[in-house]
Amino acid sequence: MKGEGCFIRARKPEEIAQRRDSILAATARLLAQQAPDQLSLNAIAREARLAKSNVYRYFESREAIYLALLMQDLDGWVEDVKAALAPLAGSNQPATVAAVLATATVARPRLCQLVSLLGNVLERNLSEQAVLAFKQESLQRGLAVLSALQAALPAVGTVRLQDFMAYFLAQVGGLWPVCHPAPLVEKVLQRPELSLMRRDFADSLTDSLQLMLAGLLAEAG
To answer: Which long-range contacts (CB under 8 A, 24 or more apart) does 176-181 make?
Structure first.
């Protein structure tokens, strides 16, 4: 493999960060063409122009690389959501808040795809330390969004908004594969009699979030 013979181990923090970024960039390029569960660590190493053994110096597994990409996407999503919700402070407008969340989410298809694979792909083949770090980082981001939701929907209350955050994650993870089926399934669903089974991700996510938030607001009285 070109580049393997002259591999120089990164030692300085900035060199390590640069090498990790190059592996993440290589993985991102491949994910634009292949599904995460079909992509091998060998392919990632080839794309990054590294030996597989050298990739392990920076990530403990393929799944750890995916989680790092997910966190990158999540960081951008959190910042977009916070900025869009800020003008809605105190408004108690569930439809508008739902639209903000859906718009930011739909704009990041890779994030949606990775979230849909969290339980059965991404959170496997990891050390306990890696899982703990991911959960802690995810919680930190989630709390930032929760704070923005509390400001925009003060009437709903903190506990129910915490519940909503869990439901929201489940909606994204569940709707993504339903709205993006395998090619053969997509072909079959084009039959007129199956039109009710075709779902648009953006519309479905927006509708479901609006229903949940409106229900929580009504429940709060």
So the answer is: 176/112, 176/113, 176/115, 176/116, 176/201, 177/116, 178/204, 179/204, 180/113
d(CA 190, CA 44): 35
Q: Whole-prediction pTM value?
A: 0.88
Of 1.25.40.10, 3.90.340.10, 3.40.190.10, 1.10.357.10, which CATH number belongs to 61-219? Answer: 1.10.357.10
Question: Tens digit of pLDDT per residue, the chain (221 long)?
Answer: 444 444 556 666 788 889 999 999 999 999 999 989 889 999 999 999 999 999 999 999 999 999 999 999 999 999 999 999 999 999 999 999 999 999 999 999 999 999 999 988 999 999 999 999 999 999 999 999 999 999 999 999 999 999 999 999 999 999 999 999 999 999 999 999 999 999 999 999 999 999 999 999 999 97
End-to-end Cα distance, the chain: 65
Domain with CATH 1.10.10.60 in the chain: 8-59
Closest CA to 91 of 217, 219, 215, 220: 217
| Closest to 180 measured CA to CA, from 94, 110, 121, 122 | 110
CATH number of 8-59: 1.10.10.60
Measured in residues, the chain has a length of 221
182 in helix, strand or coil? Answer: coil
- CATH 1.10.357.10 residue spans of the chain: 61-219
